[in-house]
Recover the amino acids of this structure.
C-alpha cells in the first residue's frame, strides 16, 4: 500500500528543512567510512594498547586478521532492574562474536540513573541532563577508533536517547541495540496507582504502600508499565535497531540469550568489511524517524520523546519539530492501551500480539515507510514476525498473529481505541506545550477554571494536605524547566491531583516541567515553553486568574484582559537552591546553555 498522504507530506517537509544539515552530516559519514579494519590505521603502539588485555585468540585476531571488532557500550549497573541483566552480556557478546569470526570488547560504560529512584528527590534534577552526558560518554568510548561496529546496552529513560545520539556521532559505524527485556508481571499497576492516591490522602500506611511497590518492581528486567523505558524499546524496534520481535521478550530467559547472540552475529554482518555495510548515520533517515513518531503516537508512548526524538534526529542532521508530532497525530490511531493508558502491562501487550501485530497494522494502513533500511536489511516486513526457539532449541522466526489476542490491549486499524494519536501541541498566549490525552476521559479534554500557582512539588503537596485543592482548579507549577532546575519529572504532583479528581472535581495541570509516560488521566499541559526562568508568559500568571486548556482545539490561553496581560511583569524566583548539592553545581554549564524543550532540551542544540 502507498504511504498515507499525511505521512508522506510530513516526511517531505522534514527532508526539505533538513536538506543542508543532513547533507553535511552524510558527507561526514562517508568521509569516515573505510573498507579495512579501523585498527589497521593506528600506529603499532596504539594497536598494542588496544589489545593488550585480550585473551590469546582475540589478541591474534586483532593483531593479524581482518575480523570485525565490535565495541560494547554498556549502561550496566545493578541499581536499575532493567540494566542488571547486562552484567553477564559482555561474555555472551564476546562468545557470539568469536562464533561469527569476530571480536568484541567493552569499549566503555555510560551512566544510567533511575528516575524511579530519584523521583521527587533532588537527584532528579540531573535526570534530563544525563541524556547528554550519556551521549558524551558513548562518544568517548568510541574515540579509540579501533572498532568496526558497536552494540549498545541500554533500556531506560534518558539512556537509549543518549546512546542513539552518541552512536550517531560515529555515524559511519553500524549500531545494534540489545534490549534486556521486561521483568515478569507483578502487582497490578492500576491497583498500585489507587494505593498511591490513598497514601497521598493518608488512608494507607507507608509500609502498605512499600509492600505494593516492592511487589510491582520485584525482579531483574524492565518495569512493566508503558513509560519512557518501554517506549524506548518500542521505538528501537520500529526504527529497525532491534532484531524483530525482541523488545519485550522477558529478561534472563533462553530466548532472550539466543536473541542477544543473534544480534551480535548480525552486527558483524553489517560492517564495512562485508557487502551489507549499514552505517547507522545513513540508516536513520527522515523516514525512519517518522516511523518512530508514528509508533509513539499509535501506542500512547512517553511524552519525553517529544524532546528526545528531536535531539536524536538533530544528531543525524535531521530537523524535527513539534508540528510534525501534531500533524502525524491527526492520522495515527491509538491502537494500544498499556498502563498508564490502560490496565495491562507490556507483558500482556507482547502476549496479545505485540510489536509484530502493531507493525503489520500500521504497514497495512500506509502509516509506516516500508522500504527503510534496518539492521535486517531493506524493509520493515521482517518486523511483522516473532522469534521463538524450535524443538532443537534454535532461534527462528515465524509470522506473527494477524488477530489481536486481547482487544482491551491491542486493536487493529479498523477498530482503534481512538482515531487520533492521543498527543497534541497546545498554543496560545502562554506559549507552546505538549498534552497527552490517551489516558484522559473525553469529558476532561476541555477544562476552564481558576488557577493556583506553585513553584515546587512540595509547595503544592502542602496545599493539598491542608485541603486547599479540593475544588475545581487548574494547578500551575512553574520554574521547573531545563534552565531553572534541569526539568525534573514531577511525579509527586499526580497522586494528589488524581485524588482530587476522584472526588468529582475538575482539575488540570500546567507546568514547564516534565511528567513523561506517567502523565496519566489528569489533563496536563507540560513542557511549556518559554519556561518561567526565561521570563516566559507562565511567569505572568497570578492566583485567581482563569485559564483554558482545550485539547480538542489545541488551545492554552490565560483568560486575562489583553491590556492587563501585556502590562504584567513576570515574577522571578530565587533558584539558588537548585544550583548546589547532589552534583548540581557540576551542571551549571548545562543549565546555562540548554536548548528549549521544543528544540530537544539539549546542550548540543544550544539556545537560539
Amino acid at each position: 500500500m502507498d504511504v498515507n498522504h499525511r505521512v508522506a507530506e510530513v516526511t517531505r517537509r522534514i527532508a526539505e528543512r533538513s536538506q543542508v544539515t543532513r547533507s553535511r552530516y552524510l558527507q561526514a559519514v562517508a568521509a569516515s567510512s573505510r573498507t579495512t579494519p579501523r585498527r589497521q590505521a593506528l600506529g603499532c603502539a596504539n594497536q598494542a594498547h588496544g589489545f593488550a588485555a585480550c585473551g590469546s585468540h582475540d589478541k591474534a585476531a586483532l593483531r593479524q586478521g581482518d575480523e570485525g571488532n565490535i565495541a560494547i557500550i554498556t549502561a550496566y549497573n545493578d541499581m536499575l532492574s532493567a540494566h542488571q541483566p547486562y552484567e553477564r552480556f559482555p561474555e555472551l557478546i564476546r562468545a557470539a562474536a568469536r562464533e561469527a569470526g569476530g571480536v568484541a570488547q567493552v569499549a566503555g560504560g555510560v551512566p544510567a540513573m533511575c528516575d524511579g529512584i530519584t523521583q521527587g528527590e533532588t537527584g532528579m534534577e540531573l535526570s534530563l541532563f544525563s541524556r547528554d552526558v550519556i551521549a558524551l560518554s558513548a562518544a568517548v568510548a568510541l574515540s579509540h577508533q579501533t572498532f568496526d561496529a558497536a552494540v549498545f546496552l541500554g533500556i531506560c529513560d534518558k539512556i537509549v536517547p543518549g546512546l542513539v545520539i552518541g552512536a550517531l556521532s560515529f555515524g559511519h559505524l553500524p549500531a545494534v541495540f540489545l534490549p534486556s527485556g521486561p521483568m515478569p508481571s507483578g502487582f497490578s499497576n492500576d491497583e498500585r496507582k489507587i494505593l498511591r492516591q490513598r497514601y497521598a490522602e493518608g488512608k494507607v500506611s507507608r509500609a502498605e504502600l512499600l509492600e505494593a511497590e516492592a511487589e510491582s518492581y520485584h525482579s531483574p528486567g524492565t518495569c512493566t508499565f508503558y513509560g519512557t523505558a518501554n517506549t524506548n524499546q518500542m521505538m528501537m524496534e520500529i526504527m529497525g535497531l532491534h532484531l524483530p520481535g525482541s523488545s519485550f521478550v522477558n529478561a534472563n530467559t533462553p530466548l532472550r540469550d539466543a536473541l542477544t547472540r543473534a544480534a551480535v552475529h548480525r552486527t558483524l554482518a553489517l560492517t564495512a568489511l562485508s557487502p551489507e555495510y549499514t552505517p547507522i548515520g545513513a540508516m536513520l533517515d527522515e523516514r525512519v524517524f517518522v516511523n518512530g513518531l508514528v509508533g509513539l503516537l499509535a501506542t500512547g508512548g512517553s511524552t519525553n520523546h517529544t524532546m528526545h526524538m528531536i535531539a536524536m534526529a538533530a544528531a543525524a542532521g535531521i530537523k524535527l519539530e513539534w508540528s510534525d508530532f501534531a500533524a502525524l497525530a491527526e492520522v495515527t490511531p491509538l491502537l494500544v492501551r498499556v498502563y498508564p493508558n490502560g490496565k495491562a502491562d507490556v507483558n500482556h501487550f507482547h502476549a496479545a500480539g505485540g510489536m509484530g501485530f502493531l507493525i503489520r497494522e500500521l504497514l497495512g494502513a500506509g502509516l509506516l515507510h516500508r522500504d527503510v533500511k534496518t539492521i535486517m536489511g531493506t524493509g520493515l516486513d521482517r518486523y511483522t514476525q516473532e522469534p521463538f526457539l524450535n524443538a532443537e532449541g534454535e532461534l527462528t522466526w515465524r509470522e506473527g498473529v494477524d488477530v489481536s489476542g486481547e482487544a482491551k490491549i491491542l486493536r487493529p486499524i479498523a477498530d482503534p481505541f481512538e482515531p487520533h494519536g492521543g498527543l497534541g501541541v497546545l498554543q496560545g498566549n502562554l506559549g507552546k506545550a505538549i498534552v497527552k490525552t490517551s489516558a484522559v476521559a473525553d469529558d476532561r479534554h476541555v477544562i476552564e477554571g481558576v488557577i493556583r500557582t506553585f513553584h515546587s512539588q512540595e509547595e503544592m503537596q502542602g496545599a493539598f494536605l491542608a485541603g486547599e485543592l479540593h475544588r475545581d482548579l487548574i494547578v500551575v507549577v512553574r520554574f521547573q524547566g531545563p534552565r531553572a532546575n534541569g526539568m525534573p519529572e514531577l511525579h509527586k504532583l499526580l497522586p494528589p491531583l488524581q485524588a482530587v479528581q476522584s472526588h468529582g472535581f475538575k482539575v488540570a495541570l500546567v507546568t514547564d516541567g516534565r511528567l513523561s509516560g506517567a502523565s496519566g488521566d489528569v489533563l496536563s499541559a507540560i513542557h511549556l515553553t518559554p519556561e518561567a526562568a526565561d521570563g516566559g508568559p507562565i511567569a505572568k500568571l497570578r492566583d485567581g486568574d482563569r485559564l483554558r486548556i482545550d485539547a480538542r482545539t489545541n488551545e492554552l490561553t490565560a483568560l486575562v484582559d489583553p491590556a492587563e496581560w501585556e502590562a504584567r511583569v513576570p515574577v522571578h524566583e530565587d533558584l539558588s537552591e537548585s544550583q548546589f548539592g547532589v552534583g548540581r553545581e557540576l551542571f551549571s554549564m548545562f543549565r546555562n546553555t540548554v536548548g528549549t524543550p521544543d528544540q530537544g532540551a539539549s546542550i548540543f542544540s544550544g539556545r537560539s
Summary: The chain has two domains: 5-184+219-399, 423-578. The first helix runs from residue 5 to 17. The CA atoms of residues 400 and 446 lie 39 Å apart.
